[in-house]
Amino acid sequence: MEDAARRPLRSRRGRRFDAVHKWSATVAAVVALAVSLYNFFELRRSPDIDVTLPHLIRLEKVGHGVRLYVQPTVSTRFKTEKVDVIRDARLDLTPTGSLSSSARPVFYWRQSVEWRYDPTTDTVNNNWSGDPAPFIVSQDKPQQPSFEFRAQNWMYKAGQYDGSLELRRAGDQNPSIKKFCLIISEPAVNELQNPQPSNLTIRFFRNDLPQFSSSASRGCYRRDADTED
Fold this sequence. Notes:
By secondary structure, the protein is α+β, with helices and mostly antiparallel strands. It has helices spanning about 1-45, 185-195, and strands at about 50, 55-60, 65-70, 75, 85-95, 105-120, 125-130, 135, 145-150, 160-170, 175-185, 200-205, 220-225. The strands form 3 sheets. Strands 7-6-9-3-2-12-13 form a 7-stranded antiparallel sheet, with helices on one face. It has a 4-stranded antiparallel sheet with strand order 8-5-10-11. Strands 1-4 form a two-stranded antiparallel sheet.
């Protein structure tokens, strides 16, 4: 008699278990489908390009013009099957403050270079590494191109400049633009125009110099030998 009395209770528990199991399976299937769809669309979407400027840029006088070297890191932070193509690089440098009425340089991407240390002369020299041509960026293939930009018939003056590096992407995608500021001191101008020794024409400018950490111009690129504003 006890087994007969308990049988309906077990039956009701069994039905509840079956119902919960079916709902759990349904929810799990919906979640799995949502994750699959999310991954599918994530992999299919266009890469989100991230451009990071280096702590160091190089300036050089050459003839009646100048060269500016910058090596950004170009990457995409999200997983995607698509790749992005950087088709062109542009550099803009605008004199500000007391130099605002000065002529602006017109830079063009002359080539890409690579830097090598020469222990015999204790110098870092550049060599051609590539023409100014489009390059591919993907999650598993970040790029660190070392751009050489050239401006003819223009020379640096002491003062501050607002700069921007613009990487133009293929198709109708918006360009990636990174802004920066550059401060060239009088001693830096003298070194650039009259290098000693004469074969050391390149000067280093950094945006992380500790002597300017509390300055209003903190974060601007400055000659590494500068000590005050």
